[in-house]
Structures are given as structure tokens and as C-alpha cells.
Design a protein that fits this description.
Rossmann fold, 13 strands
Length: 367
């Protein structure tokens, strides 16, 4: 027996179902609903698939839309010991290098000065049977490329190693990003914050939170009995998923990619060649590969809400559009892109907003 959600009335009803990912996501949604928050099932599912595709997600939008809260509530739902497995770390404007994350050698004490962040990574590495979540709150108060570069590079490494400097050039310690560790950065875009470079954007899904309904009640919903093995279900379908852990080496993913390559890679290539390339706005192999992985996870979810069209719509908006910025001269490229993606409503709505901003001489995703 599982929980399904009526999105229009945001009520919860009981129906029989198997113990698959749809049940898992609806259970996570239900837990969040019982806490008095009204994120949509699409937002929860999108966040879930984005984390599964790559363990680094950026949440953007105006202040007060629940970006930080969704990271907390999601972790509460799937963690046995939330206080142990979740870290909220506010970013400071003076973070100019990675020492605020990985620590440094203290010459006064002749010892390594550790950090909450590094201690948390070590804890996750010693408990790989359970998920661990880090939320870097207001991530762009400092330049992400400065303080987070070590981790951006390590995410692309098969070994995901991180070097911790010793007291002399011959002394070096190493740790690694464990496969059960997931990063989310929340960002606000204003005069006090920094824009992202392609190096950051290429490695994350950028999910926009902009829907505001001030009439929504914060009253907690009645909690009905939950699936008793929710945490084990999360480990099975998310944490230990073969494609998530093995990537392109997964046999099931290879079979899916072979079947869908011509259609999906061909569509992405058309976006590059017919719209973006002429203004040097095109994207590379990493984005192509991560879009394909997201599409695979969305399809295996077998959700009516996350049909191929809906999933691809979100990927255009979250992986391609955030990289696009420039002056009036890119208008032609954006209009060509709109012609190609016109059947994808969320992407075209965002792109229309970006095209409109060109009337002021410049545009980017974070208008």
C-alpha cells in the first residue's frame, strides 16, 4: 500500500502500489506535507532525480521560497539520524580559498586545523551504508570557483580524491568524496552575490524556485502511517542504484543509451549547431552526458508526471539555459533556440524572459 498525492487539492489518499520509486518519492512528499510545507511533487521529484544524476545541485530563486528548507526536509525523510547525516553550512563572503572547507596546517599548534565540513566528510566516509547531505547556504556570497574548486575537480575524478597539505612538500594526506555524500548549494542573486562560471554550472542541475502563493496554509497535515522501510527503500532505489554508482559502465544504462542516443543526442546537437555555436554559447560533452543520465532516471521512474517531454523540458531549463548570458548580439541565437525548443513550456517561458531582458542591453538566467 502506498501514498499518492492529488496535486490540485494537495490531499493524500491511500492506494495499492508496488514498492518502487514512485512510492518512495510520494512517501518523501508526504513527510514534507505533514511538516506543513507545500512543495509540489514535481519539485520533490526533480530534486530527487537531480541529486541521483549528479551529487551536486544548485537551488536558485528569491529569498524565502524554501530553498534551504527543502534540503533539510528531504534529508529528514530519508535519514535514520538526521542530526548526524545533515550539515547546514552558511557560506561567508570572505571565503577566498578552500581552507574554510578542508582546513589547513596551523603553524602555532603544529597540527592540522580541521573544519565542520571536513569532519562531516570523514564521518560520511566511515558510514557508506547511509546517505549524508551538505547544504552550502547562500553559496554565492563568495566566489564558488575559489573555495569549492577542489571539490568541483574531485567530482570529475573516478577516485574523487582530495589532497590535504602536510607541513612540508613531501608530506601530504588524502581523503576522498564518498559516494554517499550529496551537496546542495542555495543561491540568491543580488548586488551582494557572484554569478557562476561554466565550470560550476556544468557540474550541477540548477533548479529555480520562483512560485509564490501567499495564501497557502502552513498548517501541518495529519500524518498517516508511513511505509515502514522508507529508509531501506531509499537505499535500494537511490543510494545503491547501479547506474548512479557506476555511471556509463552500468549495463542497463548502456542498453538504454544505445536505444535513445540518436534521438536525444541528435536533439542536443541540433541546439548547439543551429542556435548556440555561432555565438560561442554551445555546451560540451559533460552536459550532454548528464542530461542523458537525468533522462534515464526519469524514464525508469515511470511516472506520468515525468514523461520524456517533461524531463527534457526541465533539463533544457536546468542545464543549458543557466550557461547562457550576453548582450544584445545574442538575440538571434536565443530566437533560434526558442524555435527548436518551442514545445517545452517551462524552458520557453524562461527563455522568453531572458530574451525580454535583452531590451535592457544584457541577459542571463538569473534575471
Amino acid at each position: 500500500m502506498g501514498i499518492f498525492v492529488d496535486r490540485e487539492n494537495e490531499t493524500v489518499e491511500r492506494k495499492y502500489d508496488n514498492t518502487g520509486e514512485k512510492l518512495l518519492i510520494n512517501q518523501i512528499y508526504h513527510i514534507i506535507l505533514t511538516e506543513g510545507f507545500t512543495f509540489s511533487t514535481q519539485q520533490i521529484t526533480n530534486y530527487y532525480i537531480s541529486l541521483k544524476t549528479k551529487p551536486f545541485v544548485i537551488l536558485t530563486g528569491i529569498s524565502g521560497t524554501g530553498k534551504t528548507k527543502i534540503t533539510e526536509l528531504f534529508a529528514q525523510a530519508v535519514c535514520k539520524d538526521f542530526k548526524k547525516q545533515y550539515l547546514l553550512l552558511p557560506v561567508r563572503p570572505d571565503w577566498n580559498d578552500d581552507r574554510n572547507l578542508i582546513g589547513y596546517n596551523n603553524p602555532l599548534t603544529q597540527s592540522y586545523q580541521t573544519t565542520r565540513f571536513l569532519d562531516f566528510i570523514m564521518k560520511a566516509a566511515q558510514d557508506t551504508e547511509n546517505p549524508y547531505f551538505i547544504c552550502l547556504d547562500e553559496m554565492n556570497l563568495a566566489r564558488v570557483e575559489y573555495y569549492f574548486s577542489t571539490f568541483l575537480s574531485a567530482m570529475e575524478s573516478g577516485y574523487k580524491e582530495i589532497s590535504l597539505p602536510g607541513f612540508n612538500k613531501d608530506m601530504e594526506y588524502k581523503t576522498s568524496i564518498p559516494p554517499n555524500l550529496f551537496f546542495t548549494g542555495t543561491v540568491n542573486m543580488d548586488e551582494t552575490t557572484y554569478r557562476f562560471s561554466p565550470k560550476v554550472l556544468d557540474r550541477a542541475n540548477t533548479i529555480e524556485f520562483h512560485e509564490i502563493d501567499l495564501l497557502k496554509s502552513r498548517e501541518k497535515q495529519d500524518a498517516s502511517p508511513l511505509y515502514p522501510n522508507l529508509i531501506e527503500l531509499f537505499k535500494k532505489h537511490f543510494l545503491n542504484d547501479e547506474t548512479r554508482t557506476k555511471g556509463a559502465a552500468s549495463k542497463t544504462y548502456q542498453e538504454w543509451e544505445n536505444k535513445n542516443w540518436d534521438e536525444l543526442a541528435g536533439f542536443l546537437d541540433r541546439i548547439n549547431r543551429d542556435a548556440l555555436e555561432k555565438h560561442n554559447l554551445h555546451f560540451g560533452y559533460r552536459i550532454r552526458d548528464e542530461i542523458l543520465r537525468y533522462m534515464y532516471f526519469a524514464e525508469t521512474l515511470d511516472s506520468r508526471e515525468f514523461s520524456n517531454n517533461n524531463a527534457l523540458d526541465l533539463q533544457i531549463k536546468q542545464k543549458i539555459l543557466p550557461r547562457i548570458k550576453g548582450p544584445e548580439s545574442i538575440r538571434e541565437a536565443l530566437k533560434s533556440l526558442r524555435d527548436i525548443i518551442e514545445k517545452y513550456p517551462q524552458s520557453t517561458a524562461k527563455l522568453d524572459q531572458m530574451i525580454g531582458a535583452l531590451d535592457n542591453g544584457y541577459t542571463d538566467f538569473y534575471q
